[in-house]
């Protein structure tokens, strides 16, 4: 069976985002960019399913500017077989990405579609669920365990209060949570091999999708800063402060 | 203008996240209706009808709704969606699971995790792990929104007298089914509703130490127990204790972080707490930059001492 994974190029998880001084967004010039960590988990899961003999081909998809090719090469270095870049310089919001992915799902007919549960830039947590709705497929979000059995997949999900397991008929959409797996380090030979793998480029127009943003960002601002607190010398002082100054215990 | 709030419930009671979402709904303006979709949820419907300022409760009952499967709940919401200008979900695991399905089917953008209603079409939401606050405006006819519960006070549980309307439950999608649930059993308050949270990090060293050191403090303060991602990844604490950008977002009256260095992803989940206490050996730990009271100490001696003194 085919698996399709979606990967997004985002600010590196170890970089602190800085708001642009004109309030129009986040400073991304000369900032380290990487694959969204949850998407790395998605690729890793697909590769593990391929190693188990469940999946036969893995297609990685990224939507955005030409630089997303780097993200696709990383996905192919982890083990994806080929990549598709949906190239556009427009701002892409989750609904638009879901529509682009839906068009590719129609074309490629994968049995499993795996995405990260959220991207660490817009923190939207929408694309997988939207894709599932548009393609009329069942979904399992926040996956911590995935087991394919015949024409079904059992997914354990991280939910409020614990874990829940659901069974979906294939094809299905899965979004990954942190505990699903630990992505492997990409090795130099695999990076070299990835450079030779097939990478196709299409545009939203090729797929017949209108990606015009629906939400207008009026401004982006720094959050309110917390006033600096004090250091206390010992537990007795701490307890005294909590009781008499903060009055929280 | 009428706002629909999708209630989070366990058939018997309405979860507190619903109450914060009602407050956000009132800020949007217009009447507020509450959808309680479930199976045998009579008690939850009764509780819902008593929430202050709710005009109407729509009770959808059916076996397909029992386990809150996203496909079926979304279909139930879509059946009545056209009556509303806004559809609000609490930004809980359930709400986040269902809301985007509804938005996509309506062909509207979703506004995730709002912390403020600026006007009926404009909202504030944190992005980049809370390192920036975006103000976004929607031009869509129906606004589908998830509400970060820490951004809004809880509406009063009682004092309302909403009318109750019964709706036919939707049929099962046939594409997904519920298999089982492993609920973390705990007598402690839920993290998102707790007034006090004590949270432990990787410095605890093992699941046994985590329990041995942190649990007595939680018991003493009647607090919820939280953990950093590092502690959860290491297996010291269950997944639903994780506080942070991609875990639970909390804002208790008092948050005590022990042995947590304070990665930006963790701070994103707790920096709106009223009072923050940090206990850490490392004087350079970033957690001290958001703490009201910082104590440089070894948690293995400091936490038991705190237990004996509060």
Write up what this structure looks like.
The complex is a heterodimer of chains A (249) and B (310). With 249 residues, chain A is α/β, with parallel strands linked by helices. Chain A has six helices and 13 strands. Chain A has helices at 37-51, 68-78, 94-108, 127-134, 188-195, 235-244, and strands spanning 2-6, 9-11, 33-35, 57-64, 82-87, 112-116, 139-149, 152-159, 162-169, 172-176, 199-202, 215-221, 230-231. A nine-stranded mixed beta sheet of chain A has the order 9-8-7-10-6-1-4-5-11, with helices on both faces. In chain A, strands 2-3 form a two-stranded antiparallel sheet. In chain A, helix 2 crosses helix 5 (188-195) and helix 3 packs across helix 4. The longest helix of chain A is centred in the N-terminal third of the chain and has 15 residues, at 37-51. Chain A starts with a strand and ends in a 5-residue tail after the last helix. In chain A, 50% of the residues are buried. The mean pLDDT of chain A is 97. In chain B, helix 5 links the parallel strand 12 (196-200) and strand 13 (224-227). Chain B has a seven-stranded parallel beta sheet with strand order 5-9-4-1-2-3-10, with helices on both faces. In chain B, strands 13-12-14-15-16 form a five-stranded parallel beta sheet. A three-stranded antiparallel beta sheet of chain B has the order 6-7-8. In chain B, helix 3 crosses helix 4 and helix 5 (207-221) packs parallel to helix 8. With 310 residues, chain B is an alpha/beta fold. The mean pLDDT of chain B is 96. The chains are: A alpha/beta (249), B alpha/beta (310). At the A-B interface, helix 3, helix 4, strand 7, strand 8 and strand 9 of A face helix 3, helix 4, strand 5, strand 7 and strand 8 of B.
